[in-house]
Design brief:
- With 407 residues, this protein is an alpha/beta fold.
- The chain contains 13 helices and 15 strands.
- Strands 1, 2, 3, 4, 5, 6, 7, 10 and 11 form a nine-stranded mixed beta sheet that branches.
- Strand 4 (123-126) and strand 5 form a beta hairpin.
- Helix 10 (322-338) packs parallel to helix 12.
Length: 407
């Protein structure tokens, strides 16, 4: 038996979540309603963005955004391979093709140079369109993932997007509160989609939100998430409520409930404290793990504000191939689990997953940094309630297992 049992994350909650959710249940209005609107306003205000549109998940937020922007069959959207499969799936759900590019190993975020090279190698300019040389599809957008709570290089991506007439959508699932050059994620003029899954900094159980400064776009998104209704449930209720709404579009049922929103509002009360505490614990890990040549701790470039939704390191096994290193990494994770320390790989290289391997037939090494991060990344436990003793235990066990790996 191990001395401790330390999970990867524990959501940070107290009595406030239960109190606020109980009020909603007692009110009788438990579906999307006034609490959702209040939660949308609270999140948007925190990020300095005009409008928030709550959804059932970040995946549906991404899908709704892409759909509302006109992304559909016959189109391509560039996305980094090293990201949770939902990023690519949200593109595929529109009928469009996710086109995978590489990342920086240091930040785990999309590499603008890889984007540029991918465009130049695979597309020809025909009028105002970029047409795939083999498939005849049209490149329309870039889905930029802010990975693990660190913003991608949006200014560099914007230069590419402006040059080729592309849209940018920010996948900020992990990055609520993240900043670059003093600007919040979602403040670069693009729609941004965030997640409230339990592994994120704040949670509503499941849930997501789209952030945008565009009033007309926000209005369209609100209709599309409610089956395409032209009038919200709250507005219809306040005007009498006996007539059914008009439906101007064929939409979806992607609505958050007021119960979830009540939990989210209680979480927002703690959000700044949560971010501050996670950053402090990440800094402490950096100190505890300094000097290990076999382990690279997370990077926070100058001018960036990392939220550390996950504390993801890279293992450095000299003289081993990526696959050999991956096998050693998996053994390391297994040994840590036996010692009571839960870990994960950072995320996966989506181009290696069976669903996309069948579609594109890409070999793992075709997108080398994503493949390396898939096989050599290591997520350590990090949560607000984590004690120094628990963090010391994680560090001790990791160092002992790393020594075993060297031998």
């Amino acid at each position: 038996m191990s001395e401790m049992n330390i999970p990867v994350i524990i959501p940070y909650t107290d009595h406030r979540e239960a109190e606020e959710m109980a009020k909603v249940v007692a009110s009788g209005w438990v579906a999307q309603g006034p609490k959702v609107a209040e939660f949308e306003s609270a999140v948007a205000k925190h990020e300095g963005i005009a409008h928030g549109i709550a959804t059932t998940s970040c995946t549906t937020a991404l899908h709704l955004t892409l759909f509302a922007l006109g992304i559909s069959s016959g189109q391509d959207v560039i996305v980094p391979s090293f990201t949770f499969v939902a990023s690519a799936n949200s593109i595929a759900h529109t009928g469009a093709n996710p086109r995978f590019v590489d990342i920086f190993r240091e930040t785990f975020c999309i590499d603008p140079n890889s984007v540029k090279q991918f465009i130049e190698m695979n597309y020809s300019q025909r009028g105002d369109s970029l047409v795939h040389k083999t498939d005849g599809t049209t490149l329309t957008a870039i889905l930029a993932v802010h990975q693990f709570g660190l913003c991608a290089d949006i200014p560099a991506l914007t230069e590419i997007a402006d040059e080729y007439g592309l849209l940018i959508i920010e996948d900020s699932a992990c990055a609520l509160g993240a900043k670059a050059s003093g600007k919040n994620q979602g403040s670069f003029g693009n729609p941004s989609c965030i997640s409230f899954h339990p592994r994120k900094s704040i949670t509503t159980g499941e849930g997501g939100m789209i952030l945008t400064d565009n009033e007309q776009f926000a209005k369209r998104l609100r209709g599309l998430r409610s089956h395409g209704a032209s009038t919200s449930e709250v507005a219809r209720h306040n005007s009498g409520g006996f007539l059914l709404p008009a439906f101007d579009d064929i939409g979806y049922n992607y609505r958050m409930t007021d119960i979830q929103a009540a939990m989210g509002l209680a979480q927002m009360e703690k959000f700044d404290f949560i971010l501050k505490t996670r950053r402090e614990k990440a800094a402490r890990y950096n100190e505890l793990l300094a000097g290990l040549d076999i382990l690279t701790t997370p990077t926070e470039p100058d001018g960036y504000y990392h939220t550390y939704q996950s504390y993801v390191c890279m293992l450095n096994f000299d003289g081993l191939t990526t696959e050999q290193g991956g096998e050693k990494r998996d053994n390391l994770l297994s040994e840590l689990e036996k010692r009571g320390v839960a870990t994960r790989q950072g995320t996966h290289a989506s181009h290696t997953l069976e669903c996309y391997k069948k579609l594109y037939g890409l070999k793992p090494e075709a997108i080398p940094n994503s493949w390396a991060c898939d096989r050599l990344s290591l997520t350590l436990p990090l949560y607000v309630q984590m004690t120094e003793a628990e963090q010391d235990y994680v560090t001790l066990q990791l160092k002992e297992v790393l020594v075993l790996c060297k031998n």
